[in-house]
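Sorry to interrupt, but I need a hand with the structure work. Could you write out one complete protein record for me, on any chain you like? Just paste the record in under my message, thanks.

. . .
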Amino acid sequence: MDGALFSGVFDLSWWGCAIVAAVLTHITIVAVTVFLHRHQAHHALDLHPAVSHFFRLWLWLTTGMVTREWAAVHRKHHAKCETPEDPHSPQVLGLNRVLWGGVFLYAREAHKSETLSRYGHGTPDDWLERHLYSKFQILGITLMGSADVFLLGIVPGALILVTQIVWIPFWAAGVINGIGHFWGYRHWSTPDSSTNIAPWGILIGGEELHNNHHAYPTSAKLSYKWYELDVGWLYIRILEGLGLARVKHVAPVPRFTAPRPAIDPQTLQAVVTNRYDVLAKYARSLKHAFTEEIGKLRKSSPADARALEAVKPWLHRDEKMLRAAELARLAEVLPKSRALHTMVAMRRELAAVWGRSTATREQLVSQLQEWCRRADASGIQPLVEFSQRLRSYA
């Protein structure tokens, strides 16, 4: 490049500068997803002190984010998800506000002392954190900007710095917190509207798999299905292979045995541990029951069949995610099919089993056993088959 505005130590072409920007922002993405999110906020893995400090230093240079603030805001999001206390819920604040102004919502919450004291525990609190990283946030970005300009020239360096500064606030604070609770596909019936934006977690290092994360927040691996790619997990495995990381938690993989005649404490524990897999399999059973019922009603009562087909999209959604009008319509239409009415009601009862925190283990075993007894006696074949599967979790 010619001219004073483009003079730097390295005279790169435009595509060379683009590659540099991509590499630098990618390192920042890895620092956010591996260090801030999985290591600090959720303790899903341990990192070697050298790796941990490199990520802290890099984030200070490229974003100015303080570890304690980021972890506290994210933990509060999980604790208060989609309530008025959620720092950045599109369900409460609207998608546009979170998508385009997510960074401002984050900054507002990060300056609340109550949030930091309640949710910021266990994060770095050494001399560097207190006297440099958290005290001089702008200094880090200034140093990185100066390095960009010195090495690449004023205009290329400034553009790369802007890219570094904007990337995380838009993609992490805006896209993940916004679209990740508004649009996408869902594997798991979590009690929130989290979605997987795309099955390939490349642009944001795996954070695209947001529904998977809300189902298993302490898992170091965000991908679950064979076709999903979590780039952050690839880096974790590399660090683990080098002895620089240790994975502490991953999402449980269901194991099965022959159906037990009755529910015991071990079966209860397996069901609770794999509760999202249980609900996903129940959704398949409900889908089979729906197909059978619609086939029968089309012959005996076409009007009832059409009414049930109209509410089909709502059958597989958590009732907490339905509007009042949708719930009212379901309550009106479901009695037209005894099988579907029974299965929807029993799904609610099944989910309540692991939500009863005050019940003793013996009480929960008894309640789950009674649920299976009623399912076996229902005469609804998909429900009977699911009861057998439920007693197979090991």
In short: The chain has two domains: 4-247, 265-390. The first strand starts at residue 45 and ends at 47. Residues 191 and 318 are 7 Å apart (CA to CA). The first helix runs from residue 14 to 41.
